[in-house]
UniProtKB/TrEMBL annotation, chain A:
Name the record gives this protein: Tripartite tricarboxylate transporter permease
Species this protein is from: Shinella lacus
Residue ranges occupied by any DUF112 domain in the UniProt entry: 17-436
KW Membrane (keyword) present: yes
Pfam families: TctA
Database matches in InterPro entries: DUF112_TM
Keyword Membrane: yes
Keywords in alphabetical order: Membrane, Transmembrane, Transmembrane helix
Ranges that cross the membrane: 12-36, 74-95, 107-130, 142-160, 167-185, 255-277, 316-339, 351-375, 387-415, 427-444, 459-484
From TrEMBL, chain B:
Annotated TM spans: 30-52, 64-81, 102-135, 141-159
UniProt keyword annotations, A-Z: Membrane, Transmembrane, Transmembrane helix
Keyword Transmembrane helix: yes
Annotated ranges, domain DUF1468: 35-168
InterPro entries according to UniProt: DUF1468 (IPR009936)
Name of protein: Tripartite tricarboxylate transporter TctB family protein
Cited Pfam families: TctB
Amino acid sequence: MDGIIQSLGVIFSFSGLAVLIIGALLGIVIGALPGLGPSIGLSLLIPFTYNLGPELSMLMMISLYTSAEYGGSISAILLSTPGTAAAAATAIDGYAMARKGKANEAISISLTASTVGGVFGGLALLLLAMPLASLALKFGPAGYFAVGIFGLTSVAALSGGSLVKGLVCAAFGLALATIGIDPIAGTPRFTFGLFELYEGVPFLAALIGLFAVSEALVMIENRVAAAPVIKDKVGHVFMSGALWKETWRSMLSGSVIGTLLGILPGVGGNIACWVARDYARARDRRPEEFGHGSANGIAAPEASNNATVGGALVPLLALGVPGSPTTAIMVGALIMHGLHPGPQLFTEAPSLVYAILFGTIIASLVQYAAGSLFLPLMARVMRLPDAVIAVGIMAFAVLGAFAIRNLMFDVYLMLGFGVVGYLMKKLRFPVAPIILAMVLGYLVESNYRTALVSSQGDYMIFITDPVSLLFLVLSLVSLLTPLWRRLQKRRVRQVDVDETANGTAR
Amino acid sequence: MTNQASAVPGSHLSPAPGGEATRKHFWQNLVAACISIAWNASFLFMSLALPAGHSRGDVGPGSLPMQVSVFGLIVSAVYLVQVLRGIDLGGSSDRIDVPRVAGLLGLFVAVALSANWIGLALCLGIGTGVATLLFPGERPFVRAIATGVGFWAIAYGLFGKLLELPLP
């Protein structure tokens, strides 16, 4: 009880609220800048938080982490450039909605869904930390492999447009994911002697190239005929009652998916956003609107990526296992303060634990307030001339790609991916499956091989493991559902054609 | 599928509208399918050269790349068959504006290449300023100078100084 009172005292002190607000503002800016995600933001922030003490330091980092997850959606909506990997799914419907002149609506959905997701994730962390962590830790490598496959099939199958093109892209992304040092034996693969590729193809360079640079190239081409740049005014962030009614289910499902996937080590917002979007699309009464500015296409991924923050903190606090790269950086911060994350933290530093537990919820509310105040400033980017936006995308892409590892190689690679992305857009290839396959590639391969080593080469482990079986069945359902729907549509169309033909004959 | 209309004899579905566009899409998709097959075939070839696994039960570093490339070959073959059957899988109906696209891309390649000599921040300032001239609009030179100075300041001040990014 003392720990709870102490932690609330720290959170609601002047310093506590100040670090939460500063963290939120920094997080929104860092999240919105392509290439600079919460991981880079936290890495840069840690040295400056050393003098704050562990409670304030963790509060600032949690606030930055939460707000960066939301901040990524601002540039995703306004520029079709996801600021973070977790906002990639938001870019599809967010940008489409903004292009229809509804940028304000898109951002209000994003901020509200992010807040709802963040609060939900925080509550889950507060109430279910121990039971959920122990459940997730029962997953073996076969289970994780199946989770990866499930995430992969859901996007490859439901990325919109042509299914076969989506699968071609998924295969391309998986192939790219195998480049670099092999995760089990340590053998370099497809690196052609380039040490820059030993750690694999840098994901963010590919992401920035495929999403951002390709968009700038499309924009410069479109200058001749039509201007696709958003000119809508962004002022308020309050969602209408009708939008609440339309999106609350997606927010809730996204929050649950985000929290649960966030708990699984290695599965963060960048996967949860796709799974949540896929689920919302499958449950939506108008799934055809997805990809063309659907409100649920923004609400579900945004709620999920913020809910992963609370979820990712569950294994970190309960067992000292980071659930995401960002929480791994937070482990480093705790160690810097002389603390070791894990169950012993509940007895060693109860006020710190409760500061983290309550801070995750409060940080989401602070993010809403900071986001509301900061939004008109962020949205001014829309009023910039078209030329400035296009070259701005290119300039931030170059800086973002360089910031990943401070290597110019990543800039060249990013520009190369930009050309690939541009040609893919021209040929109507979906870019999302490549990104998802790249994210999931390592998870799929490392667990696939670990599972086989543990079963001494017996492939039955993927069937006998109940978690693996469950997710493999879900993967099949996910892959077959669009095919079944398409067959149904074709059958209906066929019946219509036959009826029309019979009517004409009579 | 973007368009399920088929030219298959006996099909009850009407052929895809826009003959010229469909013809363009056919050639575009045919080239894309061939590139996809070539990519996956070469990836399979390289995967076969990787060593076998050492641990008991380990399938080796070449196993997943091999399976991925076989999967890629299968879906690419299905793609090719769909294209050859006349199914319009979508594509671009407009010509690529090569001078503008290549101009913007070339400028930023030049920025990256010259960054080590005159600094990334300055290169970006010059590059972004010149790139705005590729766009139509009023007072292009004022806009170019303002944009160039603005992005130099962002790169140097925000990234170089504030975020301490070690810019070349």
